[in-house]
């Protein structure tokens, strides 16, 4: 039986974030999610916050700490895309994506680390993407932000690894979400050809890996990149 923890997931109102919150709840944890709009799953505490706003994040953490206790597990999942070919990508397209996906993770980890240092325990999990190390045409901004999470986790591991705190990256491949469901059948089939597993992952398959990483059995894993991509990004 894994110890029950207080967990905060950013961007927990839809997609993978929502599935992560559901899995943590099912495993018996106290779960809060941040969302700019919408709500996390039933049984979770939803707090309003934008990860690009340090003051809003601080207030969100304070609310979670008051209502559920100090945050012991943080999952930095909130992210955006602004896909565009390099020649057409504006400075704003680049900086917005990097500030949300990478800067947001930095702000969340920095705020979470305060309580973790006090408790001498913490699990930091950053949700990256196969694109972070594999690359993606039209995704210079997104790929840069997602590969940056690897350097973040590994530096945090070197700084805080002696204090009972781990920091790891989970890199999902193609996931069955509303977005992939809208792709034309032919395009879906083409994508699946490039995946050794021959299918997309369910959001729950990613969530279960994250819950395991946060648990007692994964205490000696830190600075790792765990791919959940059906073999798509092998060798990275």
Automatic annotation (TrEMBL):
Q: Does the keyword Oxidoreductase apply?
A: yes
State one molecular function term (GO): 3-oxoacyl-[acyl-carrier-protein] reductase (NADPH) activity
Question: EC number(s) on record?
Answer: 1.1.1.100
Q: Which domain of life is it from?
A: Bacteria
Ketoreductase domain segment(s): 5-178
The signal peptide here is none
The answer to whether the entry has keyword RNA-binding is no
Q: Which InterPro entries match?
A: KR_dom, NAD(P)-bd_dom_sf, SDR, SDR_fam
User: Per its UniProt entry, what is the enzyme's top EC class, as one word?
Assistant: oxidoreductase
What NCBIfam families does the annotation carry?
PRK12826.1-2
Q: What is this protein called?
A: 3-oxoacyl-ACP reductase FabG
Gene that specifies this protein: fabG
């Amino acid at each position: 039986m894994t110890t029950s923890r207080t967990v905060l997931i950013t961007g927990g109102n839809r997609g993978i974030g929502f599935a992560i919150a559901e899995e943590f709840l099912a495993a018996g944890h106290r779960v809060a999610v941040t969302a700019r709009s919408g709500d996390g799953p039933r049984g979770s505490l939803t707090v309003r916050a934008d990860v690009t706003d340090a003051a809003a994040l601080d207030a969100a953490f304070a609310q979670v700490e008051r209502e559920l206790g100090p945050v012991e597990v943080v999952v930095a999942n909130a992210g955006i895309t602004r896909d565009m070919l390099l020649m057409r990508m504006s400075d704003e397209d680049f900086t917005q994506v990097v500030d949300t996906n990478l800067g947001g993770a930095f702000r969340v980890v920095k705020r979470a680390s305060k309580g973790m240092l006090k408790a001498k325990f913490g699990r930091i999990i950053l949700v990256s993407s196969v694109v972070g190390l594999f690359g993606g045409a039209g995704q210079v901004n997104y790929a840069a932000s997602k590969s940056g999470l690897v350097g973040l986790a590994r530096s945090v591991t070197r700084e805080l690894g002696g204090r009972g705190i781990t920091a790891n990256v989970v890199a999902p491949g193609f996931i069955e979400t509303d977005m992939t469901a809208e792709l034309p059948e032919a395009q879906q089939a083409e994508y699946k050809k490039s995946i050794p597993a021959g299918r997309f992952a369910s959001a729950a398959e990613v969530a279960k890996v994250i819950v395991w990483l946060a648990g007692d059995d994964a205490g000696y894993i830190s600075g790792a990149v765990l791919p959940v991509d059906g073999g798509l990004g092998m060798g990275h």
